[in-house]
């Protein structure tokens, strides 16, 4: 049986698309940043000084998408799953407030390509940010006071709001910042890097964002963000629990560290 050129081309195109889908579903984008003074202090003793932390739930974003897999894994399971990665970077969990040096706020969910970050978080203006610190659900994990969680949630939003540069740029930039891809709008990005990051932003992505604060200062009502690690992965071709496992499998190399740009890590299929 002969196969026409058009049919052959269509088949090759479909195969390429499926290959590209699987490849993208197994590649994690990671952005890591940290305060230089914090890094300097941790470098004493070879950077191996252990730090105790407590983790609380930040913003769980559904993104306006009917995605049942978002409910297939709980926050506590996600928090427990990140413990091994934290341990390899010298961070250990503790439920005793007097022991904790870090409060880690974990934001996670799904970011659609077509929905703005402001809409996703229920933010229509800067006034909205201060009307209610609990922009989305922020249940505590491990007994943390809700006021501390509210401070962390508010700070998360205010940091992004301060970087708005124009009304036209708000949607795209905020969207990118939530998942760690704001480098797509940096004047320092090369043309190829800009294209790479904007391709990621053109698709729905699952993500998790860890924001580590000075715990003792937060107890006094002060906010000092020490480090952030933001990971995202293509949503198409997989469910949320699988995406979380893939992100956590590589994120441990980046907790509490500072890197330039966005790293891309391929993970094995599980």
Structure characterization notes:
- This protein has eleven helices and seven strands.
- The model is unreliable at 8-22, 115-145 and 160-169 (pLDDT under 50).
- 35% of the residues are buried.
- It has helices spanning 5-25, 36-43, 75-81, 83-88, 117-120, 126-131, 146-162, 167-178, 191-201, 215-219, 240-251; strands at 27-34, 51-61, 91-93, 102-111, 205-214, 225-234, 263-266.
- Helix content is 40%, strand content 21%.
- The longest helix has 21 residues, at 5-25.
- The protein has 270 residues and is α/β, with parallel strands linked by helices.
- The protein is globular, with a radius of gyration of 20 Å.
- The chain has one domain (34-266).
- Strands 3-2-4-5-6-1-7 form a seven-stranded mixed sheet.
Kindly summarize this structure in a few lines.
The chain is an alpha/beta fold. Helix content is 40%, strand content 21%.
Using brief descriptors, characterize the structure shown.
alpha/beta; 270 residues; 21% strand; 40% helix; 7-stranded mixed β-sheet; 11 helices; 7 strands
Structural class per helix/strand content?
alpha/beta
Shape: globular
Gap between N and C termini: 38 Å
Strand content: 15-25%
- Major sheet details: 7 strands, mixed
Number of domains: 1
Summed over residues and divided by their number, the pLDDT gives a mean of: 75
Radius of gyration: 20 Å
Q: How much helix, percentage-wise, in residues?
A: 40-55%
* Number of E-state strands: 7
Stretches where pLDDT falls below 50 for ≥5 residues?
A: 8-22, 115-145, 160-169
